[in-house]
Amino acid sequence: QVKSKRGESQCQEKHVVLLSPVGRIEISGCETGLHEIKLPRMSVLPSGAESCEVCEGAEEMPEPLAQCTAWLRAYFCEPAAVGTLPVPAFHHPLLQQDSFTRQVLWTLLNDVKFGEAVSYKQLAHLAGNSRAARAVGGAMRSNPLPIIIPCHRVIRSSGDSGNYGAGQVLKEWLLAHERLQKEKVPE
């Protein structure tokens, strides 16, 4: 819960847990937008649910959380529908303030589509500073909304998948999931 200077609360944070093919995904947000998506850290391949079900927090779900769960459900179970769904509003300080990190995250969200991958250097160039590949890595580490802001699509120039906050196994699973689904969906 975020407090304003006068002490009244600015937003009522709500939490939702989504059971997904990669395990429990914890989502927090308020009426204004999403705060954070927490992915399960894993060192072995996920053995999550086949589908996506909200298992906690379904009652009194603010619109951004409802949109987020619908979006994630589509991402895992009907990827062809992802492009038709609204991206939920964001309410995280990192995505409000004007910074290179914000620029990188918005560029990634808007320009790197499902089933595509981009190198840190390419993303730095797209975000307006081709020499800032290392700063792009920092931006990926601070991404509060993984999967929706697809930091898993940023890989090393060598083609190696590189690091991922929730572990390399999950990053490789997400990239493989997207490649497989993209093959099924006609352009």
From TrEMBL:
Chain ranges of the Methylated-DNA-[protein]-cysteine S-methyltransferase DNA binding domain: 102-179
Origin superkingdom: Eukaryota
Annotated Methylguanine DNA methyltransferase ribonuclease-like domain residues: 19-87
GO biological process: DNA repair; methylation
Primary enzyme class: transferase
Coiled-coil residue spans: none
Enzyme Commission number(s) of this protein: 2.1.1.63
Keyword Transmembrane: no
PANTHER family assigned: METHYLATED-DNA--PROTEIN-CYSTEINE METHYLTRANSFERASE (PTHR46460)
Gene Ontology MF, one: DNA binding
Functional description taken from the UniProt entry: Involved in the cellular defense against the biological effects of O6-methylguanine (O6-MeG) and O4-methylthymine (O4-MeT) in DNA. Repairs the methylated nucleobase in DNA by stoichiometrically transferring the methyl group to a cysteine residue in the enzyme. This is a suicide reaction: the enzyme is irreversibly inactivated.
InterPro entries hit by this protein: MethylDNA_cys_MeTrfase_AS, MethylDNA_cys_MeTrfase_DNA-bd, MethylDNA_cys_MeTrfase_DNAb, MethylG_MeTrfase_N, MGMT_N_sf, WH-like_DNA-bd_sf
Cofactor(s) required for function per UniProt: Zn(2+)
Name by which UniProt lists this protein: Methylated-DNA--protein-cysteine methyltransferase
UniProt subcellular location: Nucleus
Pfam families: DNA_binding_1, Methyltransf_1N
Keywords: DNA damage, DNA repair, DNA-binding, Metal-binding, Methyltransferase, Nucleus, Phosphoprotein, Transferase, Zinc
GO cellular component: nucleoplasm
Matching CDD domains: ATase
Reactions it catalyzes: a 4-O-methyl-thymidine in DNA + L-cysteinyl-[protein] = a thymidine in DNA + S-methyl-L-cysteinyl-[protein]; a 6-O-methyl-2'-deoxyguanosine in DNA + L-cysteinyl-[protein] = S-methyl-L-cysteinyl-[protein] + a 2'-deoxyguanosine in DNA
Family listed: Belongs to the MGMT family.
